[in-house]
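for the writeup, i need someone to sanity check this before i put it in the appendix. the sequnce is what the collaborator sent (i think, or maybe the updated version? ugh). structure was predicted straight from it, no edits. if anything looks off just tell me and ill rerun, i have time this weekend
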Amino acid sequence: MRKFFQEIKADLKFKTAGPGQKLSEPSRAPREKPKAEVAPKPRQAPTDEAQRAAAAALARLELKPKGKAPSASQEAIKSQVRKELMAEAAASEKGLSMEEKQQEEEGAAAPSVSGVYFICPLTGAIVRKDQKEKQLREAIQAYFSVDPVAASIMEIHTFNKDREKVRVCVETMAKYLDNIYLHPEEEKYRKIKLQNKVFQERISCLEGTHKFFQAVGFETKTLPVPGQETMEEFYVLKEEVLSRLEELKERKEQLLSSEPVRAQLHRQLALFQPSPAAARFELPHDFFNLTAEELRREQRLRTEAVEKASMLRTRAMREKDEQREMRKYNYTLLRVRFPDGYILQGTFYARESVSVLYNFVREALRDDWLPFELLGPGGLKLTDENLAFNECGLDCWSDVSSQVALV
């Protein structure tokens, strides 16, 4: 039985082996099974940008003279054409034209602002932050030729930083003038001893005070001191001023009511077209540099922080610390993104209120009566216009969205 099955298997194997081959014939390679033909993929039509680039390349190649070997300049042209075609293809994949791509690269390299700038209220000049005090001094000095009394009052209120000392100084000076106005016949009120202790401690040590006394009609004289043999310097009111006592009273009121001359922060309004590069923020060092006064304050805060670590703090103390943290940045750069993609940019103080930003946006609208809402980072609506920017998380720099309701 086993032999019977072996013969059947051998017979089947012989029949499926294919045609035979004689021993005297050379061996043949086994026949391969035919493979199914693969259908070629349909070729995509070139884009409009690629067709324009190819046409430009052909136009340049037609300039080649016939019958001559290509020169080095022609080879350079071909190389440039290949580069343009490759760049055009890459730009087409991103959905941008070559011009848009160039604008994107240029926009990406440009900083958001070049610095923090201020406007001098006396001259209208725009200067950088580190030049604003110098500009104010020069402007006030120039104003002495116009109104020396007003210029000296500007110096007293502007260049003396200790506001409490300025208040005491101004009140004391006003008292001198008030005594003259109320008692013009009393000679003692028309003289001020320069070495007087009160005058030295409250008035003489502040900038601009001596210029004020000279501007309102005082002159320096060396006079004998009653009861002493020594001579000392006095401010003595000129006789002709007694006929203009009402003017002296006005000068006193002007001295008391004046405020420091402050340079106005320049908004540096800028408008950006919709582009990926417009979302970048590159701020100059003016937004981060600390003055010597600010460095001393930071050092003091660090010393206090070490002391706080070893003591329990009340709620009032914690709130005070939070207020100090919010004063970390002086300026903030804000960008308002409109629904159409355009971006409005401006520079602000970090402690300014949200209402200032609403006015800034409203002034930039063609139809300023249109209602709109502002959304801060995270989509939070800026509804409380009395809050400061650093209280809303809009410190240093921030991106704000705008929803303008077209009525």
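The two ends are 102 Å apart (CA to CA). Residues 33-39, 64-71, 93-111 have pLDDT under 50 and may be disordered.
thx in advance!!
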